[in-house]
Amino acid sequence: MKRNDLLNDVLPRDVQETVEIAQMLWQRHPIPVQLFLVMCFNLIIAPAVYAAADEGLTKKAAWGLSLLGLVIVGLAAYLFVVIFQPERF
């Protein structure tokens, strides 16, 4: 209860509704929300990959490489959890 009261005091009404909708979507549809967040994070990573590469790399290839890197990091984290906590699976 206190958490909600504090949230009501600090944030304006529109932000509170946005946070509540995001929490509801995360609970009901976690995979699409996770994919959306990965693509948003890719917006940050792809230009960095494009800037670090030479002129031979296209923007599409930079997006592909950064998305591939995110998938590899996600799989590594998943495998780390599976190896050290096998009773959960």
Written account of the structure:
This protein has 89 residues and is mostly helical. It has one domain. Helices cover 83% and strands 0% of the residues. It has helices spanning 2-10, 13-28, 30-52, 59-84. The model has no long low-confidence stretch (mean pLDDT 79).
What key phrases describe this protein's structure?
89 residues, mainly alpha
Q: How many whole angstroms does the radius of gyration measure? A: 19 Å
Q: What is the number of strand segments?
A: 0
Q: How helix-rich are the residues, as a percent range?
A: over 70%
Shape call: flat
Task: Provide a concise account of the structure shown.
The protein is an all-alpha fold and 89 residues long. The protein has four helices and no strands.
